[in-house]
Amino acid sequence: MSGTSPSVATDPQDRANTPDISDHGDRLPESVPTIDTLVSEVSVYNSAPEVTDRLREAYRLAAEAHKGQYRRSGEAYVDHPLSVALILASMKVDATCLITALLHDTLEDTSLPPDLIEEKFGKKVLTLIDGVTKIGKFQYQTSKAEKQAENFRKMLLSMSEDIRVILVKLADRLHNMRTLGSLDSSRQRAIAQETLEIYAPLANRLGIGWMKSELEDLSFSVLEPKTFQDLRARVSARRKERKNYINLIVRTAEEALRSNGIYGRVLGRYKHIYSIYRKMTLQEIPFDEIYDLMGIRIITDTKLNCYGILGLLHSIWKPITGRIKDFIAVPKSNMYQSLHTTVIGPEGVPVEFQIRTEEMHRVAEEGIAAHWNYKEKSDTLPAEGERKVVAWLRQLVEWQKELPDNREFMDSVKVNLFPDEVYIFTPKGQVKELIHGATAIDFAYSIHTDLGNHIVGSRINGRWAPIKTVLSSGDIVEIMTSPTQTPSKDWLRYVATPRARARIRHWLKEEEDRQSAEIGRKALEAEFRKVHKSLSEFLKSPHLETVLSFSDLPVPTIENVFSRIGFGKVTPQGVLRKLFPLPLDTPPPASAEHEVSASDYPIVVRGGGRDLLLGIARCCSPVPGEEIVGFVTRGRGIMIHSRDCPNLDHLSVQKERFIAATWDSESGSTFEVDLRVLMEDKPGMLAGVSAVISAKGTNITHAEVRQDRRKMAVLNFSLMVRDMTHLQTIMDEIQQFKGVIRVQRIKKATTFSKNESGKED
Fold first, then answer.
1. C-alpha–C-alpha distance, residues 206 and 156, integer Å
2. Where does the pLDDT of residue 761 fall: very low under 50, low under 70, confident under 90, or very high at 90 and above?
3. Domain that holds residue 570
4. Is 359 annotated in the active site?
5. Where residue 536 falls among pLDDT bands split at 50, 70, 90?
6. How far apart are CA 540 and CA 637, in angstroms?
């Protein structure tokens, strides 16, 4: 039978029921906190004498260590750790956690020896205190953002080993937010912003709903004080207006439970101020159009009754399609379980119901703390209740290792702290929880990195779908792969999870390094050939140490040197200058022709035989598909130029030297051409464009990068192509690369010798 009166009832455990900030502090005593108050609070759930003794000893030690220290408000500093312990006692945590709270600032702010803490309370307490303690003051030279990230990394690593670290940290932040008034306004805003972005979502992720709500409202009241006060006044007025309406809903629900013999407590639940504000901003609706300022919560005794009550409510009021959510069958990642439904109540006003068991309600309010082993049997963590939470924390630990950049790391953390979850099924029925907006790529990476790296498509609910398809809760997804498929930068536009993003970037970085090393090796080999030396021989000789000096790694590798050359950080000429300080034979000028026999090129000249000496002019580097002409030189055979070669004007004074030439279309030869790419100057541009070229089955014989006077990057390539069609395809692909402004083929106009121009024999 229902256990409530017809009035709008609220649960004493339901700390976030009202939007007034003053209501959130009802768990703390109004007077100055004392150790007796803490002992009394703890004795409600653990009255063992040894626990009381340990708490009093910890308080004595904290009071002695903080003696003479005061907070900005003028209160004795020891009142702060005592208040933190009282918040945790309201969550019924164990004595180890409470002792940690009492001593949590001693390592950072006092001279209390760590050995003494370990001697009196054990290594576990000392480890927990260290996990709560911020990064040391030796980090002062870093920026505030860097220090915040490093502190969070440390806390993350600690709490993945023992969740009590974050429980103490959250209670510490909550008390600091409750007593924020003594700080200057800029400091208040900075702390409130961090609380709203990190600590409130973290409390939510750990399932501590009441704390999340209070932290949000406290932060909101600091960041937007006028908006907060206005909304609070409006909510209070609306509450009075709708009191009779809510009483009617409660009475109707209670009567339905009673007449059907179903146990249930019917409670009113007020939304907190910040949740109302978020709904107004996200849905872009005014306050007057928000009808669910208060919801109804029904707490029953069994899971079966939860579903029975859901059907009962739907028989009384019409449910709104799409607003029924079953978090009992598929719990949220923070262990939250309830049935949610929104119905059309009297007067056509939507009313939201949450239906759960007593145990589900305790977990919904206390989160991870509800699963704690309150008896002092061991220091082991509870297994079943925290499995998902700890798995999520360890995922964050994994990501923080892969994201050395602190800003990127914090952005990834923040994304994961706001997880509008979707629940996706594998073909075998395994459930994968992803954040809202996740695609098939995210799903593949959530299973295994190799699966993500080679995804080519997916079957969603039995139908083929592209890899960028956004998934919805309940989808059954099968991933299709190919061993030849690899990630591309485009994939970063289609993923929502930090795991997928980190894995893709890791692969791209490795591939970029590999391609850069290949480009660098070829560029260095080309420079060695110009001075008639062999790179491979030098890599086996004592000169190797000189080459490795160009590495930027603590343990130098030749691949790293090649990669730095490929990225344009080191020039191959610079390597040669260090190896050979003395002048060497200069290479032939760029305008010189490359001489080969006619049999080496698919060119047919008028009246020529296969033993005719031919050469491809480097000034224009003609390729099959464009018109060509031969020019008879003195002693060097026939040089083949393209019809639009800029040097033909110089040669045209002796027209009798020109000879008709055509391409032999049967040949499969390749030809060297020069390209110039103008693009935005950013890291990895040479490697990126090189990857585009290589993807077209083309060898790069030379690559270099420089910066022009407009601070734009100029990339020069020499590459081998089959014909004009092949060349045009490559140029089109490069033009599509992000940041590229212009791609052009380079044909050099040069000054010829008198002998070549025909002015003098």
1. 13
2. very low
3. 506-579
4. no
5. confident
6. 40
